[in-house]
Specification:
CATH architecture of the largest domain: 3-Layer(aba) Sandwich
Oligomer: single chain
Shape: elongated
Domain ABC transporter: 2-227
Protein name: ABC-2 type transport system ATP-binding protein
Pfam family, one: ABC_tran
Order of helices and strands: EEEHEEHEHHHEHEHEEHEHEEHEHH
GO molecular function: ATP binding; ATP hydrolysis activity
CATH superfamily of the largest domain: P-loop containing nucleotide triphosphate hydrolases
Number of domains: 2
Helix content: 25-40%
Bound molecules: adenosine-5'-triphosphate
CATH topology of the largest domain: Rossmann fold
Radius of gyration: 23 Å
Organism: Anaerovirgula multivorans
Largest sheet: 6 strands, mixed
Distance between the termini: 29 Å
Length: 299
């Protein structure tokens, strides 16, 4: 649904996006992670047609986005820094959208008054930051978008509202095949909602993974041996991290779990446990294995 191929963008001599490619399937949720200055907002501004790429292609539904009003009208963009007309109430903004966008869904707007407990007569710019975020989701969802692009979306929302907003959007992914791309610094925030995650660092995608597959491909093992550690044998494994506490060896290993276990049983360890890994740990070890300074890449 969203396809970015070999995208390059420089500001003067500074290369903000460096031959970047991503692919986001229809009816999926793609999480874009990365530290400050990685290039997330710059990429997003290409996806919503604000920036024109230097080179490369950016398409949504197979169509280029830049200067393409038809494609742009199918995308709802909720930026980090929200903008609303300074004099308009929620109600007036809703009327404005209803006149401008044929897809505006009035019934939905009315129904969502139950979810967003804000008086629609209030002027939006006078609301708190979190309340303004709520309004942007309320109105954005009523535009019945095919694609939602969200920059730090739940920043400022309280935990109950975060859950409500994600529930509404995930319902649209399931029922209307909406496609969502969401940027964040926080992997934990994305873990529950995304099916793919891409990590952006210095303008490049350094890791892109389907989350369902990830946990089946990387394992935390605790091992202990009666005699010496069989180093020759361990060299055969794809070890991302190794540490030792007393006689217990902790390994983070890539590979098929059953194969690993049957290999390791052959060397008769006195302890052989497979421990669960969080998604955050997986990324930390994978990126560490690729030579990235983890502290600078993930929070
Ligand atoms: N209009 C611009 N002119 C010059 N440099 C820019 C411009 N926009 C972005 N940059 C630079 O491009 C890099 C990427 O910025 P971007 O805002 O895309 O990062 P980000 O990943 O969204 O960061 P954050 O998490 O802090 O919001 C930064 O070094 C930034 O200074």
């Amino acid at each position: 649904m969203i396809e970015v191929i070999n995208l390059n963008k420089s500001f003067g001599k500074f290369k903000a996006l460096d031959d970047l490619s991503i692919h986001v399937n229809k009816a999926s949720v793609y999480g874009l992670l990365g530290p400050n200055g990685a290039g997330k907002t710059t990429l997003i501004k290409h996806l919503v047609g604000i920036y024109k790429q230097d080179t490369g292609t950016v398409t949504v539904g197979g169509e280029p986005v830049y200067e393409n009003p038809a494609v742009k009208s199918s995308i709802v963009y909720i930026p980090d820094d929200l903008y609303f007309f300074s004099q308009y109430s929620i109600e007036e903004t809703a009327k404005f959208y209803a006149n401008l966008y044929p897809a505006w869904n009035k019934e939905r707007y009315e129904a969502l008054k139950q979810v967003f407990p804000i008086d629609p007569k209030r002027r939006i710019t006078k609301l708190s930051k979190g309340m303004q975020k709520q309004v942007s989701f309320w109105l954005g969802i009523c535009l019945m978008p095919e694609v939602m692009i969200l920059d730090e979306p739940v920043d400022g929302l309280d935990p109950v509202m975060r859950k409500k907003v994600w529930n509404l959007m995930l319902q649209d992914v399931a029922e209307r095949q909406t496609t969502i791309l969401v940027s964040s610094h926080n992997l934990r925030e994305l873990e529950d909602v995304c099916d793919h995650v891409g990590i952006l660092h210095n303008g490049k995608i350094v890791v892109e993974r389907e989350l369902d597959n990830m946990k089946s491909d990387i394992h935390k093992l605790q091992l202990a041996f009666t005699g010496k550690i069989p180093e020759d044998f361990l060299e055969e494994l794809d070890i991302l991290h190794r540490s030792q506490s007393g006689s217990v060896l902790l390994l983070i290993v890539k590979g098929n779990k059953e194969k690993l276990l049957s290999m390791l049983q052959k060397i008769n360890p006195v302890i052989l446990d497979v421990l669960p890994l969080t998604l955050e740990e997986i990324f930390i070890y994978e990126l560490g294995g690729m030579g990235y300074d983890i502290q600078n890449v993930l929070i």
